[in-house]
Amino acid sequence: MKASECTNHHKDFCDCMKAHLREVRKKQRNREKAYRLRKSELRKNNNTNYVNSYNSGIKKSQPFRISDGRMVIGKYKFQLVEELPKDYIDWMVREMDLNSSSLSYLRSKNLI
Asked: Does this model's pTM top 0.70?
C-alpha cells in the first residue's frame, strides 16, 4: 500500500510510510550495487591488456590500423603513422609489444 492510499489513521499512515521508505531504500541499494558492479567491471577491463573500455577491441600490440595507417590509441589518435614524429615511432617500437604485422607495416614504410 502506498502512503497516498493510507488515510485512515495516523498510526496506519506511519506504518505505511515506513514500509514505503523501506522499499525505496531497497531499490536505491540495488541501483547502487549495480553501479558498483559496472564500475568494477570497467576498472577490471582497464587493468588488462586493453587500453580503455571504449576501445576495448584494440590491444597495445596494435596501436594503429594497418588498413589505413591511422593511430587508434594515444596522443596521436586518428593521425597517419607516416606523419608521426620519429621519436614517437622509435618509442612505440621500443616500449610496445607490437605484433609482427605492425612491425612489417612500419618496415614497409621505411619508418624503422
From this structure: no
